[in-house]
Amino acid sequence: MSDETQNVQEENAEHTPTPHKSTVFKLLYALLIAIPIISLILLVIIHISSPHCSSEITADGMIEFVVGGLSCISTIALAAVTVWHTEILQRENDSAQQRLEDMAKDANDISRELVQMNERANELAKNANELNMITVIIENQTKKYQRLEQLLYRYSELMDSNNVKSYLLNVVKANSDSSPNYLRTKKNEFASFKNEAQHLASEIRLIIMQENRNIVSRNDLNDFMKELDSAVFNERIRYETDTPYLDEVEQCRMKYISSFRRYLLDYSKDIDSAMYKPMTLAQVRNLFNPENEENTENGQDENGIPESDSGKH
Predict the structure, then answer these.
(1) Fewer Cβ atoms within 10 A, N terminus or C terminus of the chain?
(2) What pLDDT, in 10s, does the model give residues 105-159?
(3) Contact (Cβ atoms closer than 8 angstroms) between residue 307 and residue 301
(4) How many whole angstroms from its chain centre is CA 203?
């Protein structure tokens, strides 16, 4: 049953006479009809019987008695009507008071529901903002991971013993040539090779040393890079391709490869955890930057980006 139908039925019920109300009206109608009839009958009886009766009660006295009785009855009827009307007003007042209380209760219920809905909306907005910031963090970390992966593999290829041997052979051949310019060119090529390797190493260190996660893997990777760099570009290089030298380079390179693969694997697991596990914003931040409390307190993400700017990405 709809609310509109229910309201119509309630209004009809309010206007429908109650059994008590109908009974009172019937009694009043009966009194209004009976009183004049009884009065006429009494008057006729008194008029007819008065000549034949010896009584101290005169006809005028009897009429006054009847009139007084009728007045008394009218007063009683009027009092009854007044009482009945007062009861009706009291019932209507009670009904109105009950409706007001019900309306106040409904208003309070609606107010509580609005407060709950507002709190829920704020919570959803907060969750949506956190999810957006988590997405930004994951995107930034994924880009850093991809960039770091490229740099690590490029450094590994560049420091391959065969590649080092190739550069050294070019210098050795040029050294045996009579042209100084050609020798200078090949030495410059080896110097460029060295600069590129050291530039890659510096960029890799710049990325990994900014991270406070996987400190053991990070330190191992940094140590093996130093060891590989020292093996390739040491003071005893005389542009000779001796086998022990190249073997040492390859051994250091293999340790470096094992180390950076382990580092990338740990990094990839952290990204997957942030993507697929139910984690809060604080947990994701702590996952990638567990020691960086200052950025969190200053309203920045783990990359030093303000939270207000992170949500705009």
Answers:
(1) N
(2) 999 999 999 999 999 999 999 989 999 999 999 999 999 999 989 988 888 888 8
(3) yes
(4) 40
Put residue 115 in one of left, alpha, beta given phi > 0 → left and psi -120 to 50 → alpha: alpha
Q: Would residue 67 count as lying in a domain?
A: no
Q: Compute how many other C-beta atoms are within 10 angstroms of the C-beta atom of residue 292.
A: 20
Query: CB of 175 within 8 A of CB of 183?
Result: yes
87, two tokens = 């009861």
Q: Is residue 278 part of a domain?
A: yes
The CATH number linked to 272 is 1.20.120
Structural domain total, the chain:
1
Segments forming the whole domain that contains residue 183: 139-289
Distance of alpha carbon 285 from alpha carbon 305, whole angstroms: 12
Give the DSSP letter string of the chain. --HHHHHHHHHHHHHSPPHHHHHHHHHHHHHHHHHHHHHHHHHHHHHHHTTT---S--HHHHHHHHHHHHHHHHHHHHHHHHHHHHHHHHHHHHHHHHHHHHHHHHHHHHHHHHHHHHHHHHHHHHHHHHHHHHHHHHHHHHHHHHHHHHHHHHHHHHT-HHHHHHHHHHHHHHHHSS-HHHHHHHHHHHHHHHHHHHHHHHHHHHHHTT--SSHHHHHHHHHHHHHHHHHHS-TT--S---HHHHHHHHHHHHHHHHHHHHHHHHHHHHHHHHHHS---HHHHHHHH-TT-HHHHHTTB-TTS-BHHHHTT-
Q: Is residue 193 part of a domain?
A: yes
Which of the pair, 14 or 38, is modelled with greater confidence? 38
Instruction: Establish if 112 belongs to a structural domain.
Output: no
